[in-house]
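Milestone M4 deliverable, item 7.
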Amino acid sequence: MRRLSILFLAPAVLLAQEALRFGQDLQLFVDDYLLESLHGVSLRLHEPRPAGAALAFDQPWEGNVSAYVTVFRDDEKVRMYYRGVNDPAYVQPSALKPGETILPKNSEVICYAESPDGITWTKPQLGIFEFRGSKANNILMAGEARHNFAPFKDGNPAAPAEARYKGVGGSRQLWAYQSADGIHWKKMREEPVITDGAFDSLNVAFWDARRGEYVAIYRDFLQGIRTIKCARSKDFLNWTKGEWADYGKAPAEHLYTNATQPYFRAPQIYLAFPKRYVPYRAGHPGVETGVSEAVFMSSRDGVRWHRFLEAFIRPGRDPRDWVHRNRMVATGILPTAEDELSLYVSRHYNFPSAFLERVTLRTDGFVSVHGDFRGGHVTTKPLSIEGRQLVLNYATSAAGGIRWEILDLNGNPLPGYGRDETRLLNGDQIAETIPLERARPQPERRLGARPVRLRFHLKDADLYSLRFTE
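Output delivered:
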C-alpha cells in the first residue's frame, strides 16, 4: 500500500442545496464523486498481492508472446480466452537460461481454458481447430480476431439465444462475433463494426445494463501516444463514432491496453487496468527496449477518466518482468472468496517461461480513504440518505479507528450524530451494517428528508466503500 498524489477530474457543478442521489448503490472511493474535502487523509491506491501462477503458456500453439486474456464467471464455471502465439524474434538467445529454447514461430490462435473457482485452471481438448495435424488442443478459432479476441457473456435480456455470448476482435478494425455456447463462434456480419482506431491491443466491449446499451473501449493514437476511445451501440452492429478519453490534467502516457469492465458490485463505475508502456527505457538485456507496468483508473461514462499516476502493479524484482508489453492485466475481476477479488496479470512476456499470475485484493479494495496515526477526516458532498442503515467496508489497526458523523449543509452535526455520539469503529470488516435511525421519527424528521453530509474521522484506518440499505 502506498500513499500517492492523484489528479482529480474537475468536479461537476453542485449547487449548495443539491444532493447526490445514488439510492442504495455501492460507492467506491476511486474518484472524487462523493468527496468534498480531505483534511489530513488521502486516497491510497492498494497494490494486489501475488497468489501464485494461474496458467502457463506452455503448449506448442501457445508460447512466449501469448497474451490478451479475458476472464468471466459463467454460472458454475469461469471461462478464460487468450491469444496463443510463439515468436523467437522477441528474445535473443543470450537472454535465455541454459537449456531453454523457443519453439519455431506459429500463427496466432485463440485459446480457451476454464476453472470451477478462478484458481485452478484446465485446458480442455475442444476438437475444433487443427494444429499441425491434430485437433487435440484448446484452440477455438483463428480468422480476423485471432490477434486479440475479447468476448463477454451478454447481459442484455433481449439478446437471442444464438448471441448470448458476444465479442470483438481484429488488429486493423473490429469485427463483431456471437456464440450460443461460448465455444463455437461466428461473425455477426462480414463487414467490420468499428473502424476508427488503431486496434493492435485488447479492445473490449460489454453490456451496460444501467444505460441499456453496449459500450466499446478501444485503442487509438492521439498525437503519437497510445490512448483509448469509447463508442456505444444499441444492437452491437451499429456504433457511434468513438470519443477520445479525457484524463483531465494527467500527463500523456502510452496506455497500451485498457482491460475496462463495469465493477460487478457497483456497475455504474467502470474500472480499468491499463498497461503503461515506457518505450524509451531499457529493460532486460537481450530483449527489445521498453518496459511496462499496470496502472489503475475509473470512469462513470467511459469518456472522463480518473487516473492514479503511480503504478498499480510494478514490474517487481524478477528481471524477466522488466520487459516491454509485460505486466498486462487481463480483462475480468473475479470474486474468489467472500472477502477476496482476483485479477490475472502476465509474467515473463517474451520468454519461454511466459505465464499468467493470479493476484488478489480485498473486496472493494482498489482504493481507500486513508488516515495515518496522526488522524484526519473526509467530508462528502451533500447527499440524500436513502435507507435506514449505513454499510461500510473498512480496516483499522488495533490502536486506530474510525468515527463518523452526519452534518447539515452548514457543517453542524445533527443531534445524536456528532463525532462523540457515534460508536467507534475498530476492526476489519467487509460489510459492517450500522443503524442510522435510533427510533422511528416523524416523516419530516427522517434523515432522508433533507440533504446531509457524512464525515469520517480516520486514525490509522482505511475506508474502502459505503452504501445505504433498509
